[in-house]
Amino acid sequence: MSLSNGRVNGYSIYCRVYREYWDWVQKRNAERYQNTVQHGKNYDAKNMLHVFRLLQMAEEIAREGALRVRRPNREFLLQIRRGEFEYADLVAQAEEQVARVDAAFAASHLPGEPDRAAVEQLLIDTRQRFYAERSKG
Questions:
Q1: Which of 8, 24, 44, 105 has a beta carbon 3.0–4.6 Å from 62's, enabling a disulfide?
Q2: What DSSP string runs through 10-50?
Q3: Under a CB-based contact definition with an 8 Å cutoff, are residues 48 and 92 in contact?
Q4: Going by C-beta distance under 8 Å and a sequence separation of 6 or more, which residues neighbour residue 53?
Q5: Closest Cα partner for 49 from 36, 59, 37, 40?
């Protein structure tokens, strides 16, 4: 590859990245972006909240075999959403949480795969009940 060819490729990549950035700017969620700007931490706080929520839920599933939608640490999650933490601190906490999730699944008594026949039967039963209720109304 010649130097001039490398410049052409570099310029093409630059143009593509530039175009993708402005496409993102045009399509981004303005309210969410303003939240990121307002808290000044330079990370998507709503996305970060979901990272922690999902990691915590994964650990609960592995340890307890249960899924709790309502979170016992709601205030902590809202603090994340408000941008009250530094990005590096959250990343470090998330990495620790990932290690806990990995350890919890390694020690879990949950099966490695779902019982496909049971899941399919549950789906059939649910649909039958749904359509039976729907035909009554």
A1: 105
A2: HHHHHHHHHHHHHHHHHHS-HHHHHHHHHH-SSS-HHHHHH
A3: no
A4: 71, 77
A5: 36
